Amino acid sequence: MNAPPRFELFVLDDGEKPVEVAEDTKIPNAATFKIVKQDHTLGNMLRAQVLAMPQVLFAGYKVPHPLHPYFLLKIQTDGTATPQAVLEQACTKLITTLSALEAKFKREFSFKDVEGTVAEDPYGATGTGGQAWGAGRDYLDF
Amino acid sequence: MQAYEDSEPIVRIRDLKKDRVNFVLDNADLAFANAIRRVVQADIPTVAIDMVEIEENTTVLPDEFLAHRLGMIPLVSVNCDEAIRYSRECTCLTGCQYCSVELRLDVSCHDNRTMEVTSNHLEVIPPMNGENDGLPGEEITKRGEDFGHPVGKNDPAVQPVLICKIRKGQQLKLRCVAKKGIAKEHAKWSPCSAVSFEYDPYNKLRHTTHWFESDERAEWPVGENAKEEEPPRDDEPFDFNAKPRKFYFEVETDGSLGPQEVIMRGLAELQTKLANLILGLKAPPDVDMMNGGGGDPGMPPTNGHTTAGGWAGGGWGSMSPTGGGWGNGGSAGGGWAGGTSPAQNGGGNSGGWATSPAQNAASGWGGTSPSQNAWGSNTSPNSGATGSGSTWGTGVQQGWASPSQQASGWNV
After folding, report:
1. CATH 3.40.309.10 matches A11-117
2. Which ipTM value was assigned to this complex?
3. Residue-level pLDDT at B241
4. Does A63 contact B at CB distance below 8 Å?
5. Does B116 reside within a domain?
6. Which residue has the higher pLDDT, B112 or A123?
7. What is the DSSP-derived secondary structure letter of residue B256?
8. Is the pLDDT of residue B279 over 60?
9. Which residue out of A32, A50, A77, A99 would a mutagenesis test of the B interface target, given it has the greatest number of B Cβ atoms within 10 Å?
């Protein structure tokens, strides 16, 4: 009855900041990012990417409570870059990687279409809807 | 580490069917591959029945039982991003043609035999003009012919979903409202019925422990994916530095979306998440920038979205034809759809996400004119804020703006 709407788990409230930065007072060049309305999908991917950067001494993330829709990402750097800058670079790098992967997927899918290995309807058992999609906006229309 | 830095994932589709795709993702990180798996399972919007009004139910199943069963029926959700709004983002009070699809079911049995009520009995009520409270939009024109229909309806090759069995004299009459949602809210909105994800078929990395009676090899036969990898030699020492790099995926959809759309939307969704995070990181340091670095002289103080102004126009793979808003429906009120006039956006910066004006239309990151791009690198003399600008500058040089690399452009 008084349950909060479930979309609060993944939609930012009005005026809510997607990320809060808390600089560590005891460790040099360290900061904790509270990234709200996100989960392991982003947390683990960012952690791995940040950790792969040479300036980073420490990176870790946790979801403090499974019912609270946020995670904490802690980054410590060697001082040549701020944790914020490092995190931003990591995001940038990931987006680059993802868009490259997207292009590769697009190519692979188009090859499969051309080869005709797909059964009559490559867009799922969707009948005319699939065709409407294909006719209208196609991912291969680049 | 080094290899990770300067390499990009490789993908090879092994099999593509109308409801599934099997691919190998190589040269990727475990966390990256897992993010793809998670995002296709939980973050892609589809439509599913969310509300059921039961008018007559004399079947053996109780109302809530039926309502739950109805919710699970996959509905065709192709092009869901553009074709329907989230009802939480709609201005209507109880659901309108722009944020919901209405389905009706009216079946009664007059025979002396058991009758099966299936998803084929669900009829989509075409959207009616006039009686709606939502702001007018183009959603309905974006819908395919069978948008919202149960998957495989009237396709003899597809078995319909059984809802209930009724006998003579029983009747089931109800009205359903299907809404858009994602699987984080309820699993019925997941476009995927199964996603298999495997790496290291020989367990060389020892991420798992095989319990065995006497012979591990005999009791743990390797799967199909093992053909892709070298079997370990008997005398091979354990490589404790090894990391999984090759992942075997099979994404099976429930038919609401095709496998291609699921994958592409998943990748776009991940990029949107990251981009929102970058924006979130960018927004607060703006205050420091104003205090410390003297701010960007080209940035007019009236720009309400401050640093975000420069994002306008390009719209990050936004699906909306207006070009605004980060793929979140392109609402005009959304924060990033700000300046269309060059004056509003970071002044004299000529850099930006798209360096060539010709590319702008196609690139998701591109502004609509070169002068609109505010996230210039520090090449512009006007961008005084060296500190925060530099990171963006490197981002640009890493090739988002390269003409060959059409970032995340859904809006072609």
Report:
1. no
2. 0.82
3. 94
4. no
5. yes
6. B112
7. S
8. yes
9. A99
